[in-house]
Amino acid sequence: MTVTTSSARPRRIGGRVLNAISVTGTVTEIEPVAACMRRVRIEGDEVARLTWTPGQQVRVHVSDLLDPHSWRRPRDILRTYSIWRYDGGLELCVLDHDTGGPGARWGRELDIGQPVTFGRPEGSFVLQEDAPYHVFAGEETAAVAFGAMLAALPAGAPAYPLLEVDEPGDRLPLARDVPWLYRDGRPATASASLLEAARRLELPREPGAAYLAGEARTVQLLRRHFVAERGWPRQSVHTKPFWAPGKRGLD
Questions:
Q1: What pLDDT is recorded for position 75?
Q2: Is 17 exposed, middle or buried (0-12, 13-18, 19+ CB in 10 A)?
Q3: What is the pTM of this model?
Q4: When comparing pLDDT for 213 and 9, which is higher?
Q5: Interatomic CA distance for residues 127 and 82, integer angstroms
Q6: Which of 43, 57, 107, 114 has the fewest CB atoms within 10 Å of its CB?
Q7: What is the rounded distance in angstroms from the CA atom of residue 237 to the CA atom of residue 96?
Q8: Max alpha carbon distance in the chain (Å)?
Q9: CB under 8 Å to 162, separation ≥6 — which residues?
């Protein structure tokens, strides 16, 4: 279902300042894209003027920044989401997990026509266009950024994606064929199966660009593999630890 969009703006005192550092649009579509993931499309005049590089993220106001009740828990005001697609409208994929906090609750309560305020696209975890080939390794939390980056690659650009999820229903529709790995209930932390899959990759002799994202310990193990075991230069290995057990989020 799609609705006519307009630029919704905060009406409280301070809204003008908030608008100077953020963007507000309207939810026009919500649909499931995986067992525990919803695609959310946000449109509006301000949204249509954004610029974006695949791999970047936005910080979404999952509670009202101008509501004094939100100030009691300032760390719960913002949540970071990788951009799934941008074509004049912004699309996010929101994970709904069992231990979900403010972000998961925000995603479950979203409805068509609801305003959403977020910061402009940011982040340096993006495609290295001059790389001879591209390696992607991570789990569910990396899949959205990787999906955008894979879709942006030229058709003939060599890519070696590795993605681990808990079960087949957690797969996202990606632009390239992916040899999906399944944990089948095993913890996602320090993933030995993802590390072994990376070790088995048959890659060209010269280094390419590696993009490693997701759980922090797994990212660390993968980075060590490419730098210490394969001898890649550190600058060829790009990392983005999205989360760690017991942490609210990593940026």
A1: 65
A2: exposed
A3: 0.87
A4: 213
A5: 14
A6: 114
A7: 29
A8: 59
A9: 135, 136, 137, 138, 178, 179, 181, 194, 197, 198, 201
